[in-house]
């Protein structure tokens, strides 16, 4: 019997409830995502305290980093 190879893309929606302090999320993002910031026009490593402040003020950024944190901490098989 012949074998056929098929390929497709499939969208998956994932919902997760995570419990993480913003300080922990900011520190994780700085360490694992390599966040950078501009200091007088020169890129430098982001500091957790600055990222924490951005997380408080910028909902889309907070949601993006929460998604990345959740994905990184999901059990993988």
Detailed description of the structure:
With 77 residues, the chain is mainly alpha-helical. The chain has a domain at 22-72. Helices cover 45% and strands 10% of the residues. The protein contains 3 helices and 2 strands. The chain has helices spanning 22-32, 48-57, 59-72; strands spanning 36-39, 42-45. Strands 1-2 form a two-stranded antiparallel sheet. Strand 1 (36-39) and strand 2 form a beta hairpin. Helix 1 (22-32) crosses helix 2 (48-57). The mean pLDDT is 90.
Give me the secondary-structure topology.
Layout: H1 22-32, E1 36-39, E2 42-45, H2 48-57, H3 59-72
Antiparallel strand pairs: 1-2
Indicate the mean pLDDT.
90
Largest sheet: 2 strands, antiparallel
Q: Let me know the number of strands.
A: 2
Low-confidence parts, pLDDT < 50 over ≥5 residues? none
Task: Please give a handful of descriptors for the protein shown.
3 helices; mainly alpha; elongated; 77 residues
In short:
It contains 3 helices and 2 strands, in the order H-E-E-H-H. The protein has helices at 22-32, 48-57, 59-72, and strands spanning 36-39, 42-45. The longest helix has 14 residues, at 59-72.
């Amino acid at each position: 019997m012949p074998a056929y190879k098929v390929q497709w893309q499939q969208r998956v929606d994932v919902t997760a409830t995570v419990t993480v302090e913003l300080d922990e999320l900011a520190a994780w993002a700085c360490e694992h995502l390599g966040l950078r910031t501009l200091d007088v026009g020169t890129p430098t490593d982001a500091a957790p305290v600055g990222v924490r402040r951005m997380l408080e003020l910028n909902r889309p950024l907070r949601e993006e980093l929460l998604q990345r944190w959740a994905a990184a901490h999901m059990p993988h098989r």
